[in-house]
Amino acid sequence: MNNDTGLRKNTLGLFSLVFFVVAAASPLTGVVGGLPVAIISGNGGGIPVFYILSCVILMLFAVGFIVMSRHVNNAGAFYTYIAKGLGDNWGASASVLALMAYFSIQIAIVAMLGFFTQLFLEEHLSTHIPWWALSMLFAVIAWVLGIKRVEVGGKLLGVLMLAEVAIVLLTDVMLLVKKTGPYTFQSFEPSVFMQGNLGIAFIFTIASFIGFESTAIYAEECPRSAEPVPRAHDLRSAADHRLFLLYQLVAGASVWF
Q1: What are the b/e assignments for 222-231, b being 16+ CB within 10 Å?
Q2: What is the DSSP letter of 7?
């Protein structure tokens, strides 16, 4: 009788893992969903400074996170780390809090996906499908992919992730090309980035990097000898942080002032 309850070994390589974790962050979702709220309800044109601050904080956190990932090989990730460091009660509390947060965010993202798909179909195909029906369809598709072999989802996510990164980069180029006036960097002046609701600005800039911690979730499915989790975390951090910072620098210099 096999009592091994772990996940299937050696099913994810380095690049599949990178695709998974970058897709979890979903740079395009951060730009379309999180950034507008951070600008409108946060500190307006000073938001690039808070993205830089968020990157610095997360990179400092990543130092300890990567070290722990080399010693704890468990799909529980944060729950397991906290349980080993502070005890099972704290670990269980963290897992419940994380579950509630992820569930709430998932509802918001699926609803947003349905809403924007409805707008796209109405504008380009003159077809009206309720956003909630589209959201349910996407939820079913995600469920089907979720019960398939993990590498299948990894390949699909790779294609989708490359597409959304291309969209963000294309937006950067168009912002620079379409700029009519001079480029400015007023976003980095204290009188600009210290105004407004700084708490909301910080919350949504940090939230734009959601999935930052997800590399450790797939530790059991990776070849341990290659240490793909720390490497994937480094690659993911470098790619995601640079993409957001590039967008913020371009937008701050060419759009907001």
Answers
A1: beeeeebbbb
A2: P
What are the domain boundaries of the chain? 14-254
Tokens of 243: 């993409």
CB contact at 8 A, 222 and 228: yes
Location of structure tokens 């798909």: 117
Choice among 49-53, 110-114, 188-192, 209-213 with the minimum mean pLDDT: 209-213
120-151 pLDDT, tens digit each: 999 999 999 999 999 999 999 888 877 776 66
The 10 Å Cβ neighbour count of residue 6 is: 11
Instruction: Determine what percent of the chain falls in helix, strand and coil, rounding each to the nearest 5.
Output: 80, 0, 20
Report the distance separating Cα 194 and Cα 201, nearest Å. Answer: 10
